[in-house]
């Protein structure tokens, strides 16, 4: 089996470890790095995976999954570069950071795959987009697809599209949570208890997502099926359009894309 090290065992890093274990990977083939000793003890007790230092991970792992914050990347690459195992695959989960950054700082020829996951990885329902760097081969992409397939769905995209992916699916769960929060507040405004409003909206969101995934219908078709002439739904849709909700979403996602690009430029 391939030996995998997750560098940075925050929520996403831990979710990946958990998914790999559920997917049949042995604890002997997994390791992680984490700066806080208490967190190391906690994860080892919970999952049975050993904590190691960054140099030890770099020297022994076949695949290094980098799951640190973008602002922490340069010190980490400085640790990796002198001791990186020849032929090791580097998989970046860092928002906004291009593969050329890793290729510049790591030994010549290091294969790098850029990934944009999202937080539903925590429940095994991630949407991850992957892109090959200059030295990554088809077998590297297949390996990454296998790893991430244990925690959700995977899509290949050109790296030029990764900033848009970051804005759309990477940040996307937050937009849905924001909308659900507002709808629950609306239920309270209309006189419903918070718990009742939350149950109504959360299950409606789950059902609507399932319909989108399973029916193959365009969202407009599904929306129109709920929208009767002169009914309640069309009155609500009119208000959403009048208040510019569609335009606000477009602007918000553009702003997220711009920030992703900015993070990448900061390391040029």
Automatic annotation (TrEMBL):
Entry's EC annotation: 1.5.1.2
Keyword Oxidoreductase in annotation: yes
Pathway(s) served: Amino-acid biosynthesis; L-proline biosynthesis; L-proline from L-glutamate 5-semialdehyde: step 1/1
Catalyzed reaction equations: L-proline + NAD(+) = (S)-1-pyrroline-5-carboxylate + NADH + 2 H(+); L-proline + NADP(+) = (S)-1-pyrroline-5-carboxylate + NADPH + 2 H(+)
GO cellular component terms given for this protein: cytoplasm
HAMAP family for this protein: P5C_reductase
Name of this chain's protein: Pyrroline-5-carboxylate reductase
Gene: proC
């Amino acid at each position: 089996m391939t030996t995998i090290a997750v560098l940075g065992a925050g929520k996403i890093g831990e979710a990946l470890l958990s998914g790999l274990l559920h997917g049949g990977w042995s604890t002997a083939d997994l390791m992680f790095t984490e700066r806080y000793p208490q967190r190391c003890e906690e994860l080892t007790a919970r999952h049975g995976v050993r904590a190691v230092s960054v140099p030890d991970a770099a020297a022994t792992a076949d695949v290094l999954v980098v799951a640190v914050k973008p602002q922490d990347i340069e010190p980490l690459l400085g640790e990796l570069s002198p001791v990186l195992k020849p032929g090791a695959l580097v998989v970046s989960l860092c928002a906004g950071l291009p593969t050329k950054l890793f290729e510049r700082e790591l030994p010549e020829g290091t294969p790098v795959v850029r990934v944009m996951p999202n937080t539903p990885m925590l429940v095994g329902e991630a949407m991850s987009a992957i892109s090959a760097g200059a030295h990554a081969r088809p077998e590297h992409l297949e390996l990454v697809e296998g790893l991430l397939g244990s925690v959700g769905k995977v899509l290949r995209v050109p790296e030029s599209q990764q900033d848009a992916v970051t804005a759309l699916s990477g940040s996307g769960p937050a937009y849905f949570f924001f909308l659900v929060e507002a709808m629950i507040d609306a239920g309270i405004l209309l006189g419903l208890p918070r718990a009742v409003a939350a149950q109504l909206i959360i299950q409606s969101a789950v059902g609507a997502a399932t319909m989108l995934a399973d029916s193959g219908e365009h969202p407009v078709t599904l929306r129109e099926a709920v929208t009767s002439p002169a009914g309640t739904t069309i009155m609500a849709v009119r208000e959403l359009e009048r208040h510019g909700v569609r335009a606000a979403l477009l602007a918000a996602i553009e702003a997220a894309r711009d920030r992703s690009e900015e993070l990448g430029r900061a390391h040029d």
